[in-house]
Specification:
alpha/beta; 5-stranded mixed beta sheet; 8 strands; single chain; 24% strand
Amino acid sequence: MVRKFHSMAVKKSDESEVMIEMNMTPLIDVMLVLIIMLIITIPIQNHAVNLDMPTRTSVPSVPPVVINLDIDANGFIFWDGNQLPDQAALEIQLRGVAVMSNQSELHVRANKLVPYKTVARVMAAAQRIGVTKIGMVGNEQYVD
């Protein structure tokens, strides 16, 4: 003898105990509908990076001057091959670049053995003074 009550089936066996089983089909159906609704309502992730690309009219006819700023393993700073005595001399050179209308490109090449704080100090000084065209070169030494 089986009596059905909505989503439960009650079976009475020969023994005196009542066996109750839950019908899982309606619950699974509801869960599938909820999952489909969740998938539909999730906004599509847009992994785009907004870049301001130069137009043909904004490309300068004369390429900018490149200044090579090298930092050796001992932390000494070289401006186009000439060693700078201290941080103040570096800041004087950076101020000269910052006041130019068409700033020179500053290419920073740090030895892989130089402490990070030395490179960070140079980059922070350039940013603080107003140098906007800074690039890191020589990163292939870190590949191994």
